[in-house]
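Handout, section B. The chain below has 66 residues.
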Amino acid sequence: MGNGKYCTWFQDDDGIWQTDCNEGHIFETGSPFQNDFRFCPYCRKRIEIDYPATHSSRDGEKNERA
């Protein structure tokens, strides 16, 4: 998943955003980027979003980085 520069986030089946740094975050609506998150508040790395194959990002890419 993530590498040294990025913390990969993905949304689980319960709607909780799970992170590479083993934290969970809940947004009332939207994704981390839609809520102006660019850096992980837990490990301070840039956020990379990993979308499941069945869901694509706004750009049609699998992953989206801040």
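Note. Residues 56-61 have pLDDT under 50 and may be disordered. Compare this with the example in section A.
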